[in-house]
Amino acid sequence: NHVLCELANKNNVVIGFPYRSLFNRNTKESSLIIGRMMQNIVLCQKYNVKTIIGTFSEKPFDLRASHDVMSLFAMMGMDRKRIKESITQIRQH
Length: 93
Description:
Blueprint: H1 2-10, E1 15-18, H2 27-46, E2 51-54, H3 66-75, H4 80-92
Parallel strand pairs: 1-2
């Protein structure tokens, strides 16, 4: 919610978006997760919270090409600059 976003921004906390949670689920669960991710993306952009995009998986079959992940998050409403920053943070850690 907006209170957590304000605290995350104030305390320099990064919010992670795991795209692994979108795969291997039924349609109803995936649509619910996508809807929540879209709401969180809007809040993070509004309150200028740093984000990170990753699979957060231990299995190599859950990995996706970076341009596919970028397209997915662009469709969910994240702006291109934030997507690039979120993916770049993964490579730096």
